[in-house]
Design brief:
Blueprint (H helix, E strand, L loop, with lengths): L1 E8 L4 H11 L5 E6 L3 H9 L7 E6 L4 E5 L2 H9 L1
Parallel strand pairs: 1-2
Antiparallel strand pairs: 1-3, 3-4
Length: 81
């Protein structure tokens, strides 16, 4: 079961804003927003092989990475499973 997600975004990305707004309406999942343009965000992005934004990395209750999504349709598919 998905318990947490990391949302990689940039300040100028229009789709990132839509993704963050969509995820605000999703209950029961801890969300961490990461600015992929900051030095810390770039390092974190490397850890999860993030190559573009928005990218959402999902984790289970044991903090294992279980899925990745790049748009709202993919997020809905992950959350429906």
């Amino acid at each position: 079961m998905i318990k947490k997600c990391k949302v990689f975004t940039t300040p100028t990305c229009v789709k990132c804003g839509s993704m963050k707004q969509y995820l605000e309406g999703v209950d029961g999942i801890d969300k961490v927003i990461i600015d992929a343009t900051s030095p810390e965000g770039m390092e974190e992005a490397k850890t999860y092989n993030v190559m573009g934004v928005p990218t959402v990395v999902f984790f289970d209750e044991d903090d294992n990475e279980v899925a990745t999504a790049h748009d709202i349709d993919e997020v809905e598919e992950v959350l429906d499973n």
